[in-house]
Amino acid sequence: MGPGNVKDPIELVKERDDLETVLYDLAETFRFLGDLTMVSILMSLIVFELCVRDISESLGMSDSAVSHQLRILRNSRLLKFRKEGKNVLYSISDDHVATIFREGLEHVEGLS
């Protein structure tokens, strides 16, 4: 146990009855983060809420291709959305996703 008798998060995960499910979900998250298109979409949403059209234009992709990727990311709980009139605005689901990106960028920049 660590300071203040707080258990290490890895130890807590190991104690779960649904360990296989947790590890599967983690692997799926990393699989999505290993896809250049999905990483590009997530990166564009870290700072701003954007609609499909804005993402499509910034990445040079069709609306339907972006919509497909957004649906996958939303189902994986990496994105959230809200409706504003006729527009659907997408954003990062929570600070954990932004933290993963920051940590990943620090790691990659440290390698160069």
Description of the molecule:
It is a single chain. By secondary structure, the protein is mainly alpha-helical. The protein has two domains: 1-33, no CATH class; 36-111, Orthogonal Bundle (Arc Repressor Mutant, subunit A), CATH 1.10.10.10. It contains six helices and two strands, in the order αααααββα. It has helices at 9-14, 19-33, 36-45, 52-59, 63-75, 95-111, and strands at residues 79-84, 87-92. The relative contact order is 0.11.
Write the layout of secondary structure elements.
Blueprint: H1 9-14, H2 19-33, H3 36-45, H4 52-59, H5 63-75, E1 79-84, E2 87-92, H6 95-111
Antiparallel strand pairs: 1-2
Helix pairs in contact: 4-5
Describe the structure in brief.
This protein has helices at about 10-15, 20-35, 35-45, 50-60, 65-75, 95-110; strands at about 80-85, 85-90. With about 110 residues, the protein is mainly alpha-helical.
- CATH fold naming of the largest domain: Arc Repressor Mutant, subunit A
- CATH superfamily membership of the largest domain: Winged helix-like DNA-binding domain superfamily/Winged helix DNA-binding domain
**CATH class (first level) name of the largest domain:** Mainly Alpha
Query: Radius of gyration in whole Å, from Cα?
Result: 17 Å
